[in-house]
Design goal:
The structure is a homodimer. Chain A is built from 16 helices and 22 strands. By secondary structure, chain A is of the alpha+beta class. Chain A starts with 16 loop residues before the first strand and ends in a 13-residue tail after the last helix. The N terminus of chain A is likely disordered. At the A-B interface, helix 3, strand 10, helix 8 and strand 12 of A face helix 3, strand 10, helix 8 and strand 12 of B.
């Protein structure tokens, strides 16, 4: 890699951003990957403008919203970028741009949009290719105007911006706060920092049809990736090799430059570890005969992503305890899915989910007693110490609030209901996209204290539970879109025990030779 | 992926870190990947301790060095980690640890080492696996002691630390400064912020035999990856697909969780763009018949990496102008490589390299006149607007100063010689590892102004040069280790025109079916 002196943002005539014969811009990574019209982002801007007009107190005509895109992110003190700049998700939602260092404004009356781009020296053309002009940005992203970043104040003054709405708020999943952005000359404007953030959150939660197309696409590609891993996995393979097959498939055949999150690929007893695979636990166990594989992986395309979990026996045949556990979890999925429809709340879903799991554990003889009482004793947390699912979209735990999560950390492990009735998204609505991910794990760290706890241990059949220890756990994660009268599951991997065993034994011919393409 | 509340560092009993039968810890990702003894890092600590004892002014007995490891890096306001935490390179060099949020000290007299780890609640075991204890760190990383981060001051006081050396300085490649780290209680110690940084730089530049083993390994794996891409590439393929094959190969077969930098995979006319492939130019051109592919890609293993560039015709057959350009660049590589030995300076290498390229351009009729005069007129910059190579190791542009780079940016495009005679590394020494990467590009952005410039244009044969425009360019990048009396090239891909054409026509059987393994 040729070195260069500290260089600002990339500018290049990118093949993936194209303009069709009638001037409509779109994004498409490769010939066989999804074509995404830039009107997706125009619609998002118009919808958000309407929300601000309707939702702002004392709305004044000719107000603008201001958004700051992601900046480059270097590795410590080096000149190496974190592999791939990834646009910030709000900015991608509204503008769909892939360059770092941009900002943009949207007129709240008209939805009119203006991008502001860094002013780069001509010389960067040698390193990064022909400089993108403001005109390039207008044509390829379908915004109305484009100026340089040092012109923001001049432009907004000329436009007689009455109020400038800024993003400021807290991400309820990460608990990371976003502070209002600053630019030179911002003191010239009447600022509102409270209106925009919750409206933007609400906007991202309700997907448009064009957004659903992208999520369907990435979910289809990722489902195919899961299927290929199912066929490729065999005893002796390292977990990270399974991960590499998935990311390779999504990139090679789906144009997915990134995955939505670090693939979680535990096997055997490690499948009880919920966020396995990241950082210092790099999917580095060898998968051995008899192991269950619990693979939680999703790709990403144009900054939209998905989140699918498959659990299967590496040798193609469930043992009795593996099968029983799997079918308890699958029944739990079905029980929740059957209830989902507009108006259903995630709080209800949570209750349905955990109680279904408890009922299954009773039916299989691991627990004994009243499901109501077990639920009150929070016994479900011993077997399923995580939430039941989450929004997805631009982030894997998409904005919209922490829909259901009970937190396991000591400092927060009070009896918190994350459900917040004030958040307008709580009752499900058509076109929301979520995952449902029940799991059942046999984790000594949780089982042993519970067995000793009189309020929980009295329901637990130790001799039965002990038979299941060592298999790790099962999680099944489906992605669904809320429809008018129910939901549509868009993840598509073999799900029943029979389907999985049959698929691994007799895979459809088309699914096997994906690697022979070259 | 199951959501969680804001969670600190990962802790998990990682399979990749193991202890052998006699208690020696090592790192090994998979059964077929390199085993790296943790004594590599012990040696680095001992060497650096000696440097401080020898190099510090007014050295006092029982001094310590303090290092802070990398922290987690999240994507904007989300709870999503930038895919994969990657340890900071100084910290990896000295400790080899993969967990974020650590710090460590080294006794300058004895090399004795102490790690400090975050104190995590037991509950993280559910999300990340069994908590790693201080004892685990001692056993698996071969450090002498391990305490919690909140014990740093107590421990250093008990140890009667006389002077505490901190890292503070500027990375001469990125121009990013590192400020001295701070911890609670640091005011209790006598601090020295000036001694350590340059000694650490000097230490990283001179590789030990154990480090060379790692660099040899990753260079071998990456060479294999390049070979597979050479065989897989064909007209119609997207550039990013070539990139995905490389990263897949390195991960699947080499255990490389990461690549050393964003793969640069331009084809055709785009191969003149030096840092193609990143961010908004995501290798998104379709490769067509007749294109040259210029693929600059390197893998990474245990935070050591490599950097190799291959240029080849996608259809397996060079055209005349492609072949001529390729052979000019290859001759330039050989000319420099033949001169490399201890004592040779990078300033000399630069001169040899650029003049060799100019000589070749004269021999092929693109230039006419005296090479001396062309060199003085900086005509080489028109055809090769970048440096001739760089150190590699823990970073792709490894520390050690900006050995040779002429900077193309307007603001810095003065007649700067980056060579700094005060930097002790300047004469090459045995066991330094560098790349040599001559290139020759036909870039209108550079050619057209040069043709109009009387001091440069007078040497240029426009009619000949015009025949070459449109093919983009050629770069050949080899990795070498300086030996006692020369250098050893460790990159291993087909290099001559004949070798490349023959390899693509009749690949060795073993190189083809790497994807049939599953």
């Amino acid at each position: 890699m040729g070195a260069e002196q500290s260089k600002p943002a990339v500018n290049f005539e990118v093949g993936a951003f194209k303009v069709d014969g009638i001037g409509e811009p779109y994004f498409q990574m490769g010939p066989d990957t999804l074509r995404i019209p830039m009107t997706l982002h125009r619609e998002a801007r118009e919808n958000l403008s309407r929300s601000v007009r309707d939702g702002a107190e004392d709305y004044t005509v000719n107000s603008y919203m201001f958004f700051q895109g992601g900046r480059k992110n270097r590795r410590f003190d080096t000149d190496i970028n974190y592999v791939i700049f990834r646009q910030e998700s709000y900015f991608n939602w509204l503008f769909g741009t892939k360059e770092p260092g941009l900002s943009g404004v949207i007129n709240c009356d008209t939805g009119e949009s203006i991008l502001f781009i860094p002013r780069l020296p001509e010389s960067y053309a040698v390193w990064m290719g022909p400089l993108r002009t403001p005109d390039w940005f207008v044509r390829h992203y379908g915004v109305d105007e484009c100026f340089y970043s040092d012109e923001i104040t001049t432009v907004l003054k000329e436009k007689r911006c009455s109020t400038l709405y800024l993003m400021e708020g807290m991400n309820r999943f990460s608990y990371v706060s976003t502070s209002a952005p600053i630019f030179e000359g911002i003191e010239n404007f009447t600022i509102d920092k409270t209106t925009l953030y919750p409206l933007a959150v609400a906007g991202r939660v309700r997907k448009t049809d064009k957004e659903l197309d992208v999520i369907r696409y990435i979910t289809k590609v990722s489902s195919e990736g899961h299927r290929r891993v199912l066929l490729a996995a065999k005893p002796g393979m390292m977990e990270y090799q399974a991960s590499s097959i998935f990311t390779y498939y999504c990139y090679m055949y789906g144009g997915c430059r990134e995955v939505g999150y670090i693939p979680i690929c535990p096997s055997g007893d490690r499948s009880k570890i919920l966020h396995y695979g990241g950082q210092s636990a790099p999917n580095d166990k060898q998968i051995v005969d008899g192991d269950l594989c619990l693979f939680d992986m999703g790709g990403e395309y144009h900054c939209y992503l998905t989140d699918i979990t498959s659990t299967f026996p590496v040798n193609g045949k469930f043992t009795d305890v593996q099968r029983t556990t799997y079918e308890m979890v699958l029944d739990t999925v079905h029980t929740v899915v059957n209830r989902i429809r507009p108006g259903f709340t995630w709080r209800e879903a949570r209750m349905v989910c955990y109680r279904a799991l408890l009922r299954n554990l009773v039916e299989q003889g691991l627990l004994v007693g009243s499901v109501d009482e077990m639920y009150d004793a929070k016994l479900h947390r011993v077997f399923m110490p995580h939430g039941i699912g989450h929004f997805i979209g631009g982030d894997v735990h998409d904005v919209g609030g922490n829909a259901s999560y009970w937190c396991w950390s000591d400092s927060q492990a009070k009896d918190i209901d994350w459900y917040d009735p004030d958040l307008e998204w709580c009752p499900l609505e058509k076109n929301m996209v979520l995952t449902i991910e029940p799991g059942c794990y046999y984790n000594d760290v949780l089982l042993d204290p519970a067995l000793l706890d009189p309020t929980q241990g009295k329901f637990m059949v130790k001799s039965e539970i002990d038979r299941y220890r060592g298999i790790g756990g099962v999680r099944i994660e489906e992605v669904f879109i809320v429809t008018t009268d129910g939901c549509e599951i868009i993840s598509d991997v073999p799900r029943t025990v029979t389907e999985i065993e049959e698929y691994m034994k007799n895979p459809p011919p088309d699914d096997i030779p994906f690697l022979d393409a070259f």
